[in-house]
Design brief:
Blueprint (H helix, E strand, L loop, with lengths): L1 E6 L2 E6 L5 E4 L10 E2 L36 E2 L7 H13 L7 H6 L4 E6 L7 H11 L8 E6 L8 H8 L1 H4 L4 E4 L5 E6 L5 E5 H4 L3 E7 L2 E2 L3 E2 L13 H8 L16 H13 L3 E7 L5 E7 L3 H14 E4 L3 E6 L10 H11 L3 E10 L9 H8 L4 H10 L5 H11 L3 E5 L4 H6 L3 E3 L2 H12 L5 E4 L6 E4 L9
Parallel strand pairs: 3-21, 6-7, 6-11, 7-8, 11-14, 16-22, 17-18, 17-21, 18-19, 19-20
Antiparallel strand pairs: 1-2, 4-5, 9-10, 12-13, 14-15
Length: 471
């Protein structure tokens, strides 16, 4: 069967024998990640692609290309139009959960700040920013500041800032600011001991609005919600203290209740102050399929419930080989970002199996500390032990990859130099076909292959689903 998988701004085609295909877990337009039952891949279903066809919206396959019983896939429906996205945005703003409408809050404020995601995130802020500014209309544009939540990521160029919010918004008179970690103010300490130091312009604003998109996060449970402030607009020390809790076994994708990282983030959000939240759930083409607004906890949990019901996908049997992509740009811009996909799909591959990671990584590894840890690794166990001795941001992702390398092989299709990939105890390949062929040779000629083209958006694992939206 001829398939294709996202790679940067394009796709890479490859072949999988029909008999070897255990299934495809892909995104469906308009339905986020809704899982379907074990029925076959019918004509018009994303995933089973005919010659030259891809996994994307509307990609069809030959009728009767059967999907094995027990394999979850994503349901198909009509893709939302731009008008649908705008209508959903305005609906959420008109129906806030657990909070007054934003325009009512703005009428009582003298200034406002809106925190938006940085360039490493898929959140299409430019789509909903005009509606948010309309809600803030009691305030003049000069009284509104847009802060880009860099966390520990690199600063933006002015062009990137404009692209993130849209040219219309950028030219409206609002102020655009990247996080400056040297301009942060102490706020207090959480009960778990995280010292909170937050970007001063945010704290000085009369009305504080946070935005973002809801995805799985490999140790905070889910993105969105108060993650806009921690780690989004705070200092390295704050991030390090919070992220250090990722070593707890309860800190994992899809888990809120009892997750110390998420609970610390939510406590911090309450201490710092978030007056209004706007979060979106996206399909695989970064279109808005659901929006939630209002109280930063209540609205986030509503969005999580919608997302998790559709994107927590299960298989009856772990595959021998998993072929996975983060979903293209921006999720595969560097290995630091692409690592999240490895964590999301790890539960779907058997011990001793192979994950084929298809990630362009045009920006290389993406983090200096991460690079130092990965390239100095003599054996995976070294990093697993090291992170417990000395928790360091950047090192935490290297240790997560090292832990995975202890039980599976990683084949990498990317723009990274071959010698660099090899130094990190992975195997480089020029194309997906070669990587899959080698994986089958490694795991046996009867190997079962599972394909996950949008691995940053789903968790794929064995076992029954459970409700994880509380907490």
């Amino acid at each position: 069967m001829r398939l294709a998988i996202p790679y940067g701004d394009t796709e890479l085609a490859f072949e999988v024998a029909d008999a070897a295909l255990a299934g495809v877990i892909s995104g469906a337009a308009g339905e986020a990640c809704a899982p379907a039952g074990p029925e076959g891949l019918d004509e018009g279903t994303p995933g089973a692609a005919g010659p030259g066809r891809s996994f994307g919206p509307g990609a069809g396959g030959p009728t009767g290309a059967a999907e094995p019983a027990g394999t979850s896939r994503l349901s198909s429906s009509a893709a939302p139009t731009a008008a649908d996205e705008e209508a959903e945005t305005r609906r959420a703003l008109a129906e806030p959960i657990g909070a007054p409408r934003l325009r009512e809050l703005a009428a009582a404020a003298s200034s406002a700040v809106i925190v938006v995601s940085d360039v490493t995130r898929p959140c299409p802020s430019h789509k909903f920013m005009p509606a948010l500014l309309e809600e803030l209309r009691p305030l003049p544009p000069e009284a509104v500041t847009i802060v880009f939540a860099l966390g520990g990521h690199r600063p933006h160029t002015p062009a990137e800032q404009r692209a993130l919010v849209g040219e219309q918004v950028a030219a409206s008179g609002v102020r655009l600011l990247d996080l400056d970690p040297d301009d942060c103010v102490p706020v207090g300490t959480t009960t778990r001991g995280t010292p909170l130091a937050v970007f001063r312009p945010y704290l000085e604003s009369g009305l504080r609005v946070c935005t973002g998109n809801i995805d799985y996060h490999y140790f905070a449970g889910f993105s969105g919600g108060a993650k806009a402030v921690v780690p989004g607009i705070c200092t390295y020390d704050t991030i390090r203290a919070n992220h250090g809790m990722m070593l707890d076994e309860r800190a994992k994708a899809g888990v809120l209740e009892g997750n110390p990282v998420r609970e610390d983030i939510d406590e911090a959000g309450g201490m710092i102050g978030i007056d209004f939240l706007f979060n979106v759930v996206l399909d695989e083409e970064r279109r808005v399929v659901r929006a939630v607004a209002g109280d930063f906890l209540a609205a986030h949990r509503a969005g999580v419930a919608f997302y998790d019901a559709r994107c927590d996908l299960r298989v009856d049997e772990a595959a021998d080989v998993v072929v996975a992509s983060p979903g293209g740009t921006p999720k595969d811009m560097n290995l630091y970002q692409a690592q999240k996909t490895l964590d999301n799909v790890a539960g779907a591959v058997r011990d001793g199996g192979v994950i084929v990671l298809v990630a362009r990584c045009e920006e290389g590894l993406g983090n200096a500390v991460f690079e130092e840890w990965m390239t100095s690794m003599r054996a995976p166990r070294d990093l697993v032990d090291r992170i417990r001795r000395e928790f360091v941001l950047g090192g935490h992702k290297a240790a997560a990859i090292a832990a995975l390398l202890e039980r599976v092989d990683l084949h990498v299709v990317s723009e990274l130099p071959d010698d660099l990939v090899s130094a990190m105890h992975m195997t480089p390949f020029d194309g997906v076909d070669a990587a899959v062929t080698a994986a089958v040779a490694r795991t046996g000629r009867d190997a079962r292959i599972l394909v996950i083209p949008h691995g940053s958006r789903v968790t794929a694992r064995r076992g029954p689903r459970e409700d994880r939206s509380t907490g």
